[in-house]
Each structure stands twice: as C-alpha cells, then as structure tokens.
Amino acid sequence: MTDSTATKTTLQLNNPNSIKTAICWCLAWGDKKQPQFPLSVLQQMRQDLNEGKEVPEQVRLLVEQVRQLQDIDKNYFPPTLEELKSKYPELWNQKTCIGLVYGGATKIKQYVFEATKLPDIRGASALLDRINLVDLPAFFSCEQHPYYSQCQRAKDYCKKVREEWLDKAENFPQLSQALIPELVIYSTGGNILAFCPAAFVDDLAKAIEKRYTEETLTANSCAVGDKFKLLEIRFGLLPDEINNETFWLEKYRNHLENPLIQAYFDQPDTNSEEAFKERKTFNELAGDLAAKFNQRRNGNQLQESDRSLHCYPPMFETHPYLKRDEGDRRSAVMQAKSSPDDPNEGLPSDPWLSEVTARKRLVGQIAKRDNANRKWYEQSGFDWEPGKDAVESWVDKFEQHLHDTPHRYYGKIRSENLHPSRVKEALSVREIGDASTPNGFIAYIYADGNNMGGYIQKEIENPADYQRFSRDIFDATEKSVYAALTKHLQPHKLNSKLQAERKSTKEVWIHPFEILTIGGDDVMLIVPADKALAIAKTIGEEFEKQVLNKGKYYESDKTYNPQVVQRYHGEKTIYGDKQSKLSMSTGVLITAEDTPIYYAEKLTSQLLKSAKKYAKDLKKQNYYGGTVDFLVMKAVTMISSNIAEFRSQGLTKSGQGQQKLKLYAAPYTLHELGGLLETAQVLKDVEFPKSQLYQIRSLLERSKQTAILNYRYFRVRLTNKKAQDLLKTQFEDAWCRPKQLNNNGNLAPWMSLKEDKEKSQEKVTYETIWRELVDLYPFIKKSQNTSNPSQTQQQTSST
C-alpha cells in the first residue's frame, strides 16, 4: 500500500465528515429518482468532502447549509420556533427532504431456534449475520469503505448482490447508484439505520424486506422509512407551518399533566424542560421510525403510506404434509441419503430436508469450515447460492483476535508440538460437553446490554453520535467475548469415541465453544459447563472496561455504596466509583448436553430477564454494573413451567413467625459472582464432605435456626484448622455478616436481605447461597496447590 493510499484509507476510516457527506449527498441528489446534478458532480463532491477539499461550485451552497447545520452550538435550543426560523432562514426554507430508513429481521429466535440440531441453528444464525453484515451494506457499496472489513473480504460477492439481484428489472434497478457507504449510520445487531435520497425511501425499505425473504424463505423482517427536513436532523420533528396550534416549549409547559405528554417526554431524574430538549433531537426521528417499525411488524397499515402490509411475506405452508423435514416444521423436499459405497454421498443419519432446512444446513457447514462433502446440496436441484465468500465463522474472527493480541490460549497445543491450525471448530454440543468437568455438561450463555435505551435517549443527539455509539458497542461486545474465551478456555482433545465419529485417524483438537451470535449488544454462546460462570463474569467485566476505554462520555458520575449493594465482602476492597454508564446482564443455564436446544434457549432467556430486572432494581441505588442469573439443571423434568414460578413455589418458604426463607440468592452482581466462585473453590479445596453439603441443603427448608445449628455443628467438627478458618473467612465473614455493624451474631448459612426496616413493617427475609454452592460443587476443580486435608478431616453424620 502506498503512502497516499494509506492516508486515504485512514481518512475514510476515521472520517469526521462521514455524516456530513451523507446529508450533502441526499440534498445534492434532490427529491426525484434522477439526480438534479450529474452523477459525476456528486461523486466528486463525495470525494472532496472525505478528503477535506473544496467541493464543486454547483453544490457549494448545499454543502454550506449542511456545515451551518452542524455548526449550531450544542447547547443552543430555541425557546420558540419563530426564533429558529428567523435565525436559520436558509435551513428552514430548504425544501429538499432527506430519507431515513430503519429495518431488519424480526422474531429472530423463532427462525433460529425452530431447528432442533446445532448445525441448523448455526446455519440460521450465520445466514442472518451474512444478510445484516454483508448483503444490506452491499446495497451501499460498503466494500469500498475500510470500516466494513467483512464486506471488503467479500468484494466480488457484494458486487454480485447489486448486479445480479438489486439492479435487476424486477427488483430496484435505480437504487444502487443512489447509495454510498457514508449513508449507513449502523448495520449491526440485526438492524440497519441509513440515510438515502428522499425518492428512494420506499424502494430501500422494500429491498431490505425482500432480501431477507428471498434468502431465508421463512424469516420475518420489517423495514420502514420517512422523509425529514434538514433542521429536523438537529431539532427533531418540526411542523411545516408555524401557527397558534404549533406545539413547542410554551404549549408543552401548559400541558405537563397531560398523560400523553408525560408518556412521550418524561424521563427519570430529569426536569421537564430538559426532558423536552433531550427529546427534540435526531433521536426523535429514530424513535419515530421505531414506532412505525413496530406498527408495520404488528400488521398495521401506516398513515401516509401506500406500501402493502405484506410485500414479501415469509413462506408459510398450508397444504397437508406428505413427509416432514427433520424439525417437523414443513414438508420435506429431499433426502440427503448417504451411500456405503461413496463416503461423499449425503449426510449422516440420512436426514429429510425442506428447502429452508437445506439452506440452514449448507450455510452451517460453511460457517464451521466443515469440509464434509456438499455434494448432497448440488444434487438437490436447488439453484440458491449461499454466498460462500461472505459467510464468516465467529471462530475465524476469534482466531484473528488471537493473532492480533498476546495470549496463552494455544499453550497446551504448543506443549504437544502441534500447530494451532490443527484446532478445529466443535461440530456438536457433545464435543463441547466433552471439554467440561464432569463430561457431558454444557452451558448456554445469553448476555444483553443494560441501559442502552436510556443512554441513547439522554446522550445521543445526532447521527454521528448514533454511528459512534453503534460501532463502540459492537466492538466492545465482540472483544469482551473473545477476551473471556481466551482467558478461561483452551483447545480440547476429543475422546476416542467422538474422534471416531469424525472418521479421523489423527487426534482431533477443537475450540470448545460455539458462538451462536454476537450482535450489537447481545451475545449467545455455548461453552463447557465448568467454565460458564467465569466466562460470563469476564464478559461483563471486559465489556465495561472496553466501553470505558472508548471515552469519558461513557463514564458515569454516580457512586454507589458497596456495603449496601454488594452482599459479598471479601478481603479485596471495592469502590463504588468509576462506573460505566453501560453494562451487561447475563443468563447462564448449566445443563446436560442432550437438553433440547429450543428448551434451553427459553430458560436462558428467562434467566437473562431476571438478571436485567435485578440490574434495574440496583440502579435505584446508583449501581450501574453487570448482573448474572444462573441455574444448574440436572434434568429436563426439573422445571415444568418457568424459572420464576419454580423459585417462588419450590425454593421459597414461609415458616412460623412469618419469616420468609429464600433457598437461593441469584441473581448476583459480577463482584458477588466472583465471590461465589471463590467460596465454592474453598469448599472444594478443604474437601468439605459431600454428604454434609447435601445434608445442610436439605435442612435449609426446615427453619432458619435448624439450618444455622446444623451448619455450626458440621463446621466445628472439621478437625483441620485451616479448613475451619477458610470457611469462616470465605463464607461466614464474606457472606453472612449481619447488616448492623455492632451486631456480632452469626447467621451462617443465611444472609438477611437489604431492606429499610424503619419504613417497613414486613418481617426480615433471609436468603442463602448454599444451594447454589452445592449445585456448582461438581463443576469446580480442586486447586492444584492445595494440600489434601482429607486425612485430618473427620467425617460426621447427622444426629
């Protein structure tokens, strides 16, 4: 790369004029489908803006108007619209509108998890990722922009999307020439938000919906758009005319008690006038599109729109089934039948496939670099092409991360004198479960960002903020996942049985995880059960660290009291300052490898919802950090309905004296989760008798006093002094101290809930981590540097 090319690339990647270029492009194009200036003039304008040069004379006035818009002082807000009109008459009188389109896939889990097998789930997720991260940006020629690295690696495919699909006469032949990379505000997390010339709003929205339907056949999608005036990009929705009915600050002040006004403008901890100003920004335009998106998704006709509700509906079969596919969802149209004479024929187990399932299976093979023969698809007669060059595995990206950062991930491989290229992807959950201790257990991790909507509402004021925010969050999420996997996992050698299933004569080493998706601020993983909570904790911590490193605008000025918020008080002192405004909540389900994936996903989603509720409650005490809820499910029949009902009915007791006993303590903050893992490690290291662990757990249900007495009895019977001391410091002192500092009582194994009893007549509620310690005990490895205390430990029995 020459110096001039490198400089140009850097300018494009870090271009502060990206949004300016986008707005200028829309204004210069005009409000017709044919540009008002020659296309060569527009392209020259774009290049000059990106390089900071003087633009062609024909468009200089328009560029000056956009510069004037962006130069409006951040703190300026007009008390009346008359003032705004008189202060910026050129901007007010600009009649050319700017198009804004928002769209993406909906009901994603329904499409991804309708399949029962990991290869199909993997393929469904990878196909949606390809559409969101490559196909839609390809409409805008994003392979020409260095930020879109995945598009750059699939340049030929992106060009093919435009030439062989978008530009076809039956699709949208004029659209691609009206779109440039700078128009895209973001295209991550399954959604896209982008500017476009006003005349192409409906075409772009239709193209988004049609692309999802034609590529997936059954995935739901939705896209909406609208045209906005130039000043609306800075001050939100504005009226066409100013008269006595015009709604602005004065009318807002006079109708503060109106429920509709309150619902639309009110924000917690914000005075009414500030709430109005924070609402009247570009964020209001995005919110307007989000509301229309929900309307259209729910089947409602939008006002002032003649678009059909079902332009490109997903395929739903209504005829009787002849032969069902593997997932029993739709009619099978082919069988990938294997042949004993030709190992390249068919697929294992001779599955019956519908076209939808066949596409998922094929993309799943590509995404996992599964080099098994794909002859079965070639023989099917389907003419759909998967876009092989555009389908990237998350493991590919993980390996690139390993290449770019220092790590010890491959230490075990190198000690065996093997090259990292020998490490392959896991092909099934059984292979991931083989890496766990004990074998056969896996964990589903589902993480999602906290306070994202609140941050957008208060902090995002313009398209550039949206763009920066989207890129920052996607980057922080991706890096936090890779950092956690690198820290806690290492390549795993499959057992001989699983190796034989791969028909391999050599030892097979795998990456022991599956990244189902990393999109925007959400993450879905499958990992070995024994590392799940440590990985979840590190993802949450790394996310906050990565976000804080992006800039001070993500740093919160709120401080919380650790003595009140945190239930774990170990030796390490923590402080409640230097918090990120954004964090992650995580649900973790530890279960057997043969648990149906669709069922596991539903439970993990419930755990995530519980963790997010806990984070929302703690926010009232100025805690902005992450939270984790988890459940160890040894059998599918353990929970018949939902987790909240299981806990309230099966794990909550109201004994005599109206004392409420919670036999669990989840969810946890990240600090508390670290303490829980440390305490579980202590129990393992001191070899606390397993029978007594279970016996104390069984006694929790009887009463608070019974559990306390039995715990004390078992603890003092440990003749190993070190074991007693560790239990006292790591469990009793760290978790079970009374809330009053001058109270020297001992509640172990209970903790009292943090409640303001001076204002409440309710009885104290007690909770315990003991049940979760017992659940985690089989998944904790004994520390290597711990001496064996079993010879000096006296086994006791219940009396």
UniProtKB/TrEMBL annotation:
Keyword annotations of the record: Antiviral defense, Nucleotide-binding
Domain of life per record: Bacteria
Gene Ontology BP annotations: defense response to virus
Pfam families, per the entry: Cas10-Cmr2_palm2
GO molecular function per UniProt: nucleotide binding
Residues annotated as domain Cas10/Cmr2 second palm: 442-617
Region (Disordered): 323-351
Keyword Nucleotide-binding set for record: yes
NCBIfam families named among the record's database cross-references: cas_TM1794_Cmr2
UniProt-recorded name of the protein: Type III-B CRISPR-associated protein Cas10/Cmr2
The organism of origin for this protein: Pelatocladus maniniholoensis HA4357-MV3
Gene behind the chain: cas10
